[in-house]
Every structure is written in C-alpha cells, then in structure tokens.
Amino acid sequence: MNPTLRDLPLQQRVQLVEDLWDSIAQDQQALPVTDAQRAELDRRLDAYEQDGNQGRDAATVLNEIRQKL
To answer: Which InterPro entries does the entry link to (predicted)?
Structure first.
C-alpha cells in the first residue's frame, strides 16, 4: 500500500475508495459488448420470455446451500 495513503484519516480513505468505485462504475457503462455477448444476452432474454421463470432470490439459494453443508 502506498504509505501516503496510510497517513490519511480512515474516513478520507473510505471516501477515496467510494469515489474510485463510482468512477469505475461510470467507465463500465461505456464498455462495448461483443457480438458473442450480445447473442448470449439475446438467448437468455428469449428463454426468459418463453418460460417466464424469474429464478429464485439469492437469499433462498444461499440458505439451501448452507443447509446442505
């Protein structure tokens, strides 16, 4: 880690991380989608529109996994 960063107060370091994350999120919106990715997205959307299965929420799936451990 950059020693200068360690000298900053915790709240300021947290703010820097949040700002950095926000800037990454903004850049991600501009990433191009490849033809293969677009085809896969279209395939998944078509499958959803045919069966209407919305899947299950993450909490339910995680609980089931934990019960099996």
So the answer is: CHP02574_addiction_mod (IPR013406)
Structural domain harbouring 61: 3-68
| Integer Cα distance of 66 and 44 in angstroms | 28
What beta strand segments (E) does 5-69 contain? none
Tokens of 3: 């020693």
Q: How far is CA 25 from the centre of its chain?
A: 10
Residue 47: pLDDT band with limits 50, 70, 90? very high
| Per-residue pLDDT tens over the stretch 27-36 | 777 778 899 9
| Single-letter residue type at 18 | E
Q: How many domains, the chain?
A: 1
In terms of DSSP H, where are the helices of the chain?
Answer: 3-6, 10-28, 35-51, 58-68
